[in-house]
Design a protein that fits this description.
With 386 residues, the chain is mainly alpha-helical. It has 2 domains: 31-208 and 344-377, no CATH class; 211-343. It has helices at residues 2-32, 37-54, 56-79, 106-134, 137-153, 161-166, 171-187, 191-208, 210-237, 253-275, 287-312, 316-343, 348-377, and strands spanning 88-90, 94-96, 239-245, 248-251. A hairpin with a 2-residue loop joins strand 3 (239-245) and strand 4.
């Protein structure tokens, strides 16, 4: 009988929920098409998820802290003139904003990243005041949780905010952060920490391998330059100098066949060289051999491209078009090199300011965490915040 009553009660709750949802479906549809609709919907979903597992008070506290944190990033981005999308809340993962354009350098990225934890610090101030006047433990929870979340976010490892802040200082900071999170994950295992470690490792590795990347870009640019010279030579080799039709000089198809055969023979020689080389090399120690292999692979690509160009050429105007296209590719490669060279470059003054700001913020959040934790430790909890 009791079980039947429980089932009836659950049925009434479900039915009531469905009725409410049906009445609110127009509001959900409206939110979907509004600028901040996605943010509001994701916020409510996250709030509901946290409330189910941890109680509604804890859920509200967590959403408040995450919201203020993300607003800090949005304000910082607006100050730097970088367009962003509204925040999106992901249950048990946190929240994030999307940038519609990348920062021009690491110093700008550090400014954007710093805005989140700084806003997080500010979000704790009202809780300090309210606890002082009311003595309610919920405000101590806000202090402790807000400080803890933002302090953890300051860990010097990408993709956390701290990793993006210290990127302007040195890539070695990322390695320290990586080791720190590994130690933390050993004592407090978490799926989220595993993802952070994996992402952080590849970010650090990509950063310290930028010199090698620059050398491969040089190889690609040089290969394109050689390709341009070969394309220009096609103007002399592929067209009869004294035989023309209504569309201009006639294509020498015999020479086309000869040139493509030459390319095929060259490809075979390169493939033979590659077959005698290792496919894997020890980073740093065997970079010279790896670059040689990379050079051969690029030559294969350029030969294949030249083969396709020869097959496709129908008139002299195709020569100019292909030269212009390869020139454009070289320009893009040089721009990529320029971005890599300049992105992490900053003055000593900028590095000093970032370092001091980072230490001060981490220290303030650490002190607040200890303060909030000490308040909570003075009490024994028989019931959760719900």
């Amino acid at each position: 009988m009791a079980e039947r009553k429980n089932n009836t009660g659950r049925g009434l709750i479900v039915a009531s929920g469905l009725l409410i949802l049906s009445k609110l479906k127009w509001l959900i549809a409206l939110l979907k098409f509004s600028k901040f609709g996605g943010m509001i919907i994701s916020l409510l979903i996250s709030l509901g998820a946290y409330a189910v597992f941890f109680g509604w008070k804890f859920g509200v506290v967590l959403i408040y802290l995450l919201f203020i944190h993300e607003m800090g990033h949005l304000v910082a981005a607006k100050q730097k003139g970088i367009k962003t999308s509204p925040a999106v809340f992901i249950p048990f993962m946190g929240a994030l904003i999307g940038m519609k354009e990348q920062p021009k350098d690491a110093a700008t990225e550090a400014y954007l990243a710093y805005g989140g934890p700084l806003a997080g610090l500010i979000s704790v101030v009202p809780a300090i005041i309210l606890y002082h006047f009311t003595g309610q433990l919920i405000w101590a929870l806000v202090i402790m949780l807000g400080a803890m979340l933002n302090l953890f976010n300051l860990f010097p490892i990408s993709p956390l905010d701290g990793g993006r802040v210290v990127a302007v200082l040195s890539p070695h900071m990322w390695l320290l952060g990586l080791v720190g999170v590994l130690v933390f994950a050993y004592f407090f295992p978490s799926v989220i920490l595993i993802f952070i470690i994996i992402f952080g490792f590849f970010s650090w590795w990509r950063r310290i391998r930028e010199d090698y990347m620059m050398k491969t870009i040089d190889l690609q640019a040089e290969a394109r330059r050689v390709l341009i010279e070969k394309i220009k030579e096609l103007g002399k080799d592929l067209f009869y100098q004294y035989y023309t039709d209504e569309e201009g000089p006639m294509v020498n198809h015999v020479m086309k066949g000869f040139l493509t055969r030459q390319i095929s023979e060259d490809q075979a020689l390169i493939q033979d060289k590659l077959s005698r080389m290792k496919k894997w090399y020890i980073p740093f120690l065997q970079d010279k051999s790896r670059l040689l292999r990379e050079k051969y692979l690029i030559q294969l690509q350029m030969n294949q491209l030249l083969f396709q160009i020869i097959e496709a050429i129908q008139g002299t105007e195709d020569i100019s078009m292909q030269v212009a296209e390869q020139d454009h590719v070289i320009q893009q490669l040089r721009k990529q090199q320029d971005r890599i060279n300049k992105y992490y470059h900053s003055t000593l003054r900028t590095k000093l300011i970032v370092f001091i700001a980072y230490i001060l913020l981490a220290g303030a959040l650490g002190a607040l965490f200890v303060y909030g934790q000490s308040i909570l430790n003075d009490y024994s909890f028989n019931t959760p915040f719900s």
